[in-house]
Amino acid sequence: MRRQGRRVLFALAAISVLAMAALAGGEEGTRIPLIGEEAPAFTAETTQGIINFPQDYRGKWVILFSHPADFTPVCTTEFMTFATMEKEFEALNCKLIGLSIDSNYSHIAWLRTIQERIEYKGMKNVQVMFPVIADLKMEVAKKYGMLQPSASDTKAVRAVFFIDPEAKVRAILYYPLSNGRNFQEIKRLLIAMQTSDKHNVATPADWQPGDDVIVPPPGSCGTAQERMAKPGKDVKCYDWFFCTKKLPKPEAGVH
Asked: How far apart are the first and last CA of the chain?
């Protein structure tokens, strides 16, 4: 009886460990890097040669994004949009890296088709110059939780990872396979995070470069009272915890 009891206890302990690992994302393919964590490192073959991440991108912001598959219409519109905006992201010290669970040959054929045959919303002869990862073994996709079995076992969802110059994950966006991303929002969020870093401020709902920013709340009663009595130049206080200030548009981000 004692032996049976011990076996039951051992079995329950093993089940608990497995359950905890699953909740923590321990199962391969389910773990999504969290905001503030180090971005998982990888070496990968791409349409622009081998890249080593994050070594090759130190000092740069990176937008790493996945798409379900080559030669699909939604992905085609997204790649054309990202490619036409690449210089805008470069001006923000940001590099783009794409990924799908396709071969390098498939990537190259698809990108050539985009350039030679596709015209959409005034975009034509679009050349995709940023690297696109060939991830047939799903190694990078699994490291970043881009595979979500309830959506597909073989296609990555539309994930967007914002990674800062210190290789930390700063923001994550996920879209379903059926719906394209809002690229103006991707750019706006990048500028907002850069603005917060540079000026030690927060940005309110629907913030756009040039809008007022939020001053960090005071940390004590004394500073709260002082904030209300003497808010400072270009500072507007709605209450002790909620004050905004003007930030000239050219100072937003890293322009």
From this structure: 73
Reply yes or no on whether the pLDDT at 116 is more than 50.
Answer: yes
**For the structural domain made of 200-251, what CATH number should be given?**
3.30.1020.10
Instruction: Pull the structure tokens for residue 208.
Output: 């756009």
Whether the link from the prior residue into 250 is cis, omega within 30° of 0, is no
Catalytic residue numbers, as ranges = 75
- In the structure, what pLDDT confidence band is assigned to residue 15 with cuts at 50, 70 and 90? very low
* Segments of 154-241 assigned E as strands: 158-163, 169-175, 213-215, 235-239
- CA 96: distance to chain centroid? 10
As a whole number, mean pLDDT of residues 102-131 equals 97
Cα 250 to chain centroid, rounded? 24
Amino acid at 250: P
pLDDT for residue 6? 46
pLDDT in tens, 46-74: 999 999 999 999 999 999 999 999 999 99
pTM over 0.85, yes/no? no
Within 10 angstroms of residue 57's Cβ, the number of other Cβ atoms is: 19
**Topology of domain 42-182, per CATH?**
Glutaredoxin (3.40.30)
What lies within 8 Å, CB to CB, of 40 at 6+ separation is 33, 143, 144
Residue 172 β-bridge partners: 161
At 140, give phi and psi (nearest 5°). -70, -40
Q: Per-residue pLDDT for 216 more than 50?
A: yes
214: β partners: 202, 244
Taking the C-alpha atoms of residue 196 and residue 200, their distance in angstroms, rounded to an integer, is 5
Question: Which residue from 205, 217, 206, 211 is spatially nearest to 252, judged by alpha carbons?
Answer: 211
Contacts of 147 (CB under 8 A, 6+ apart): 29, 138, 141, 153, 156, 157
